[in-house]
Amino acid sequence: MNNINILGTVYTILYQAEDENEKLKNVDGYTDFSIKEIVIDVTETDDVMRISDIEAYRKKVLRHEIIHAFMHESGLDCNASWSLLETDNGQPEQIVDWIAIQFPKILKVYKELELL
Asked: Helical H runs in 54-92?
């Protein structure tokens, strides 16, 4: 369990398995804005088609959920005019995925150019 600060709000990161948390039944992670928790699925599986580098995938899922938290704390989860498909929390998964996937690459360029 870790605590992180998202724009002044503390979120707790939890790593749980599906048998501990039924909300993980059809997702690899989620953010509960009401109680400020990010939950990442660590369910073990024997599925041979599962991703080989599961730790790298879990980090990707965590980056994705952190972006959801930033959007929520920024007020971008409601009353926003999104033109892409929204999820039930009002945030477009395409935008969240793009930011979560591209941010490490953007950060690398910023560091190389000493822009931070």
From this structure: 54-73
Residue 64, classified by CB atoms within 10 Å of its CB into exposed (0-12), middle (13-18) or buried (19+), is: buried
- The pLDDT of residue 87 is 56
- The residue ranking higher by pLDDT, 38 or 115, is 38
Q: How far is CA 67 from CA 46, 48, 113, in A?
A: 30, 30, 24
Instruction: Report in angstroms the alpha-carbon separations of 90 from 48, 71, 83, 87, 115.
Output: 34, 10, 11, 5, 32
Confidence of residue 91 (pLDDT cuts 50, 70, 90): low
Residue 6 and residue 73 in contact, taking contact as beta carbons nearer than 8 Å = yes
pLDDT at 49: 64
